[in-house]
Design brief:
By secondary structure, this protein is mostly helical. The chain has six helices and no strands.
């Protein structure tokens, strides 16, 4: 029937991942132990206080000694937790370093392939041509900048200003020949003075 739910993606679990998981589990167990002992110490402190109140000094002293011993165990537990956390951090950092090294390896392979496609001579040729183009453009700019005197520069600016302020630009002669002639305003007849049409002249003649 096949797998109705599709294929599951299998993530690769390394030995470092397993070691980190085990260390974190041990750290969490020690923290639970710390919490349980702290609660127990608080209860024993209250109990020792009650024993002293009832005049049972010997039992209270024995309970305080037990409490002191458990506090020393808690100090050792705290040191163990610190060691476990440092080990976890070291392992996680080593994983990051490995990924960085793998990334550098991939980048190095890409650079090698690029170098195979484009040789050093080709790169030098492109750089030389680019530099030649920059120098050529620079020479043209210098020639243009030094070819006109200050008087010519002023004349160019004045002409540009005149063109900018001009309202309607004249059409080229080639286009003006193709346009129909339009009578001037003085030659146009008023509407009342227009000649009657042919049909009206025939009716008037009758």
């Amino acid at each position: 029937m096949g797998n109705l739910f599709g294929k599951r993606k299998h993530t690769r679990v390394t030995e470092q991942d397993k070691a980190i998981l085990q260390l974190k589990q041990q750290r969490d167990k020690l923290r639970q132990y710390q919490k349980r002992i702290n609660l127990q110490l608080e209860k024993e402190r209250l109990l020792a206080k009650q024993l002293l109140k009832n005049g049972k000094k010997e039992k209270a002293l024995l309970l305080i000694k037990k409490k002191r011993y458990q506090e020393q165990l808690l100090d050792k537990t705290e040191n163990q937790i610190g060691n476990l956390e440092r080990m976890v951090q070291d392992l996680e950092f080593s994983q990051i370093e490995r990924k960085v090294i793998e990334g550098l390896k991939v980048g190095n392979d890409c650079l090698k392939k690029m170098h195979e496609v484009m040789s050093i001579d080709e790169v030098e040729r492109i750089l030389d041509e680019t530099q030649e183009g920059i120098e050529y453009q620079k020479q043209i700019d210098e020639m243009l900048a030094g070819s006109l005197s200050q008087e010519d520069e002023d004349a160019v600016l004045a002409e540009l200003e005149a063109i900018t302020q001009q309202g309607d630009l004249e059409l080229p002669e080639v286009l003006s020949d193709e346009l129909p002639e339009v009578p001037a305003a003085s030659e146009r007849k008023p509407v009342s003075e227009k000649e009657p049409s042919k049909k009206k002249r025939e009716l008037l003649a009758v």
